[in-house]
Amino acid sequence: MSLRDQLQTTLKEAMKAKEADRLSALRLINAAIKDREIAVRAEGGEVDDAAILAILGKMVKQRQESARAYEEGGRLELAEKELAEIKVISEFLPKQLSADEVSAAIQAAIAEAGATSIRDMGKVMAVLKGKYTGQMDFGAVGPTVKDMLA
Predict the structure, then answer these.
(1) d(Cα 2, Cα 22) in Å, to the nearest integer?
(2) Are 81 and 28 in contact (CB under 8 A)?
(3) Which tens digits make up the pLDDT trace of 9-24?
(4) Which stretches of 1-150 are DSSP H helices?
């Protein structure tokens, strides 16, 4: 079952169960995917599961930042709403890799890309993004890759 089908099934279940908060989060996901489809359609492309995973990862990051800002501003009810949305979005993301798994994946990507210096960092990141989209935070992985190539 594709990720899009899984989202639609979950949306229907939330409607039937009258889970308003969950339904709201699922509709936000669908809206983000539709926005991306419209942007890509002009170029003649298509939104696949990898693109959906990237969208979901971006949505989680946005909500984490918003929740942090709300907590700092003393708006705990809004922070809780953002955290609840993160929980719903995370259901569709693959399991995050542990620190050891990330290190092993980086080493494998370096070997696969034949990287020998920092100049090859882009090749390594491309391999990682191709295989591990949604499973690791590439912003945090970048410095680790840089250290391993130095």
Answers:
(1) 20
(2) no
(3) 999 999 999 999 999 9
(4) 3-17, 20-41, 49-72, 76-90, 99-113, 121-132, 138-149
Name the DSSP class of 44: T
Q: Position 48: which residue type?
A: D
Q: Which two tokens stand for residue 128?
A: 């990682």
Pull the structure tokens for residue 91.
């259901």
Q: Which amino acid is at 78?
A: L
CATH 1.10.10 region(s) of the chain? 99-149
Q: Considering the domain 3-90 in this protein, what is its CATH number?
A: 1.10.1510.10
Which residue intervals of the chain bear CATH 1.10.1510.10? 3-90
| pLDDT of res. 70 | 95
CATH topology of domain 99-149: Arc Repressor Mutant, subunit A (1.10.10)
